[in-house]
Amino acid sequence: MAQEVQTPQATGTTLVDVKGLKVHFPVKGGLLGRTVAQVKAVDGVDLFIRRGETLGLVGESGCGKSTTGRAILQLIKPTAGTVKLDGVELTKLSSNEIRRKRADMQMVFQDPYSSLDPRYTIGQIISEPLQNFNRGNAKAIQEEVGHLMETVGLNPYYVNRFAHEFSGGQRQRIGIARALALHPSFVVADEPVSALDVSIQAQVLNLLQDLQGKFGLTYLFVAHNLSVVKHISDRVAVMYLGRVVELAKSENLYETPLHPYTQALLSAIPVPDPEVELRRKRIILEGDVPSPVNPPSGCNFHPRCWKAQAICREVIPPLEEKQSNHYAACHFPG
Q1: Cβ neighbours, 10 Å, residue 25
Q2: pLDDT tens-digit readout, 80-111
Q3: CB distance 85 to 104 below 8 Å
Q4: Under CATH, domain 14-233 is a member of which superfamily?
Q5: Cα separation of 161 and 133, whole Å?
Q6: pLDDT given at position 275
Q7: Straight-line distance from the first to the last Cα atom of the chain, in angstroms, rounded to the nearest whole number
Q8: Which of 220, 242, 297, 333 has the fewest CB within 10 Å, making it most exposed?
């Protein structure tokens, strides 16, 4: 028994508007290689991102965070749903139109070790998008590369070095410089600090915030580290098994989470105060995350939820406003 999902409505100037986004991957089997099942990696995501803000997208590994980011940028073709960037419906564009639109939307990848071509110098890596979009002659591009390197905290003197000559943090700065080369309005940062040392993570996060203020960027910040997301995000969306289960301002979500899954996630964050930590109640979820090939009926979270009742097994809870600007997909929030 399905119920129509009420999507959250954006207020203010909306840059990115996603409704009903689905990404299903076919599972082949048998001698003829027929499709025998579908992996429902993203199964009906609704969210919006206002111009100039950072929306954090969190959840455990395999919940569909990175796939959502890639589908928004059309790096993966969505199975269903709509994605609008500054009013333009991206899913309706042709390959050539999407290519031209890439100047407005870029991505910072998770692994700085595998996302940079080892055969290219740093100058070639950063200048490649400028050359592809004909942004000036050779001298102008060279000057812009030097400026971009300085902007992200790298010495332009190293322009002819290769990626393997840099540390992880420096490589991620190179990836950020490449993403900024075309002056995009929207950037998807796919776990940009998860592969870095803790001491370097803060430097990269501060750099991203500085660049946001300098260039007026809008971020979708994908991560599984709730402390990192709290530091950088204006609002936070929580995903579980392909769906957004809660969406709210960062401070509201961390202080008064409404969805049981969000409550369980936040209870796992250690508090740097031994007395407070001893008094805290840790929520231990029973069972494992269901398979996206065969998700549960109704609410995806009901097999592990201590509040689950009959309606949870039958009706998909809509993502609707429970408090002011605080959305949750739960029949029994709070």
Answers
A1: 16
A2: 999 999 999 999 999 999 999 999 999 999 88
A3: yes
A4: P-loop containing nucleotide triphosphate hydrolases (3.40.50.300)
A5: 24
A6: 67
A7: 24
A8: 297
